[in-house]
Amino acid sequence: MRFAIYLLSFFLVAFSTPSLGQRIVYSQPGNDDTRRMNFEVIGKVSGNFLIYKNTHGKSYVSVYNNNMEEVSKIEQDYIPDDRLINVDFFPYSDFSYLIYQYQKKNVVYCNSVRIDGNGKRITEVVTLDTSHLGFTASNKIYSAISNENKSKLMVFKINSKNKSKFIITTLLYDAELALQKRSTFLMPMEAHDDNLDEFNLDNDGDLVFSRFARNNNETINNTTLFWKPSDQDTLTAITVPQDKVLLDEIHIKVDNSNKRYFLTSFYYAKKRGNIEGFYFYVWDKQSRQPVLQNAVVLGDDLRKDAKGDANMKMAFNDYFVRNVIIKKNGGFLINTESYYTTSRSSNWNRWNYLYGGPMSSFDYYTTYSPLYNSWYWRDRYNSYQNVRRHADNVTVLSFDNTGKLEWSGVIHKEQYDDESDDRISYLTVNTGSQIHYLFNVDERRALLLNDYTLSADGQLNHNPTLKNLDKGYEFLPKFGKQVSVNQLVIPCYYRNYICFAKIEFN
């Protein structure tokens, strides 16, 4: 009899587990949490979920418990109400760095503090650097980046007053925010259409970034990789041979396991041609030699699957690289998405969308901004009339360490929005054994969050509809953040408010 009870208990657990494969918990929106609120998911600190909010010029950190109940909302009164330029967050297990910049008179200050898991400041405000300007800054002056294992932080600025010689200043810190190295160096900008982009920090504290030149703000015809060791003030320039191919957008990924830098881009065979495939360049910093240079043509079968309504030759002309994942064996996974706009007044034009790259120059400083990096960079309410934004199929490609295509897959979706692009596109969540792709699908005039999973062998599976998808909640996946191995927090629209949903995967 006792054995029968144990057996029954086993089957109850075994068959109930799949229904608990995921769990969604929603927060209640506050009175000030309107759709126009600026926000940023900070992360999970000391078991609580921290979210930065900026309303009516004031900065707050809301603290949510495991049931997404707001247990406190702490005003960050050391942050000035006016002339705040930008805020960045670097969460650790029991605290988070908050690095902010603001302008007072003609000086821009870059300051930092620590906040704990209760959203309270636990250190004095520390000024990391200042810049004297002769104008009012409308864009951020400083950029802050971290490495993969969070052992290093870097703050940098680029003075572009002299258009032919930029002055780059970097400040490298350890995990305790102790200054390790301050460097200032000149960056020759040899052509008027030179751009800087893709700044990355590796686990040794070395900096790597690219300089490239575009043909009339279109394709890239010249690329240089720059490497700055953590303990030096000099740069090593690495010419990237393009072998008669024209590149699209440069993407750099640090391979910390193998101490290499991985550069990739879509490529063209001619100006204003069709995208032919991927270009790869991998540089080993130990041998100081390239270990891979390859151009891979995307085949007809993949084009047919990925093209949607496009002509097969033009199948990837509206695709953009969203993120790159490095494998331990030196191979890599590339996620791309079809993104374009339609309008009554003009046709979609990839070259107009690029605007010559994400770097923007003005009177004194050039600033760097990775996609979806911060609340400051969202153009969420500068809507353009009669413009519809589309985010369609996601194509996933896996390459081995020689650049050979191993397998590919396409997640078919059609998304559009006439107000903004908040609710379109997708979020990836890496749980170790698989990668989740989360995005909205319009079903009977309701947006439902869908979940696809990718296994290590390239199998894409459409999972059953997520449980507890309450009506009235519209997810903003691309602004979500993975906060632990199996947890993520995604902002949602609920009526005219913003709230936040915690999703747990088993």
Would you write up a description of this structure?
With 506 residues, the chain is mostly beta strands. The chain has a domain at 31-138. 5% of the residues lie in helices and 52% in strands. It has helices at residues 2-16, 300-306, 350-354, and strands spanning 22-26, 38-45, 48-55, 58-64, 70-75, 84-91, 96-104, 107-115, 126-132, 143-146, 152-159, 165-174, 179-188, 194-201, 207-214, 220-228, 236-240, 246-247, 251-255, 260-268, 275-284, 289-297, 319-326, 332-343, 360-361, 365-367, 387-399, 405-411, 415-417, 426-430, 434-443, 446-455, 460-462, 473-475, 481-484, 487-494, 497-505. The strands form eight sheets. Strands 10, 11, 12, 13, 25 and 26 form a six-stranded antiparallel sheet that branches. The longest helix is centred in the N-terminal third of the chain and has 15 residues, at 2-16. The two termini are 32 Å apart. Mean pLDDT is 88; it is low at 1-20, 355-363 and 369-379.
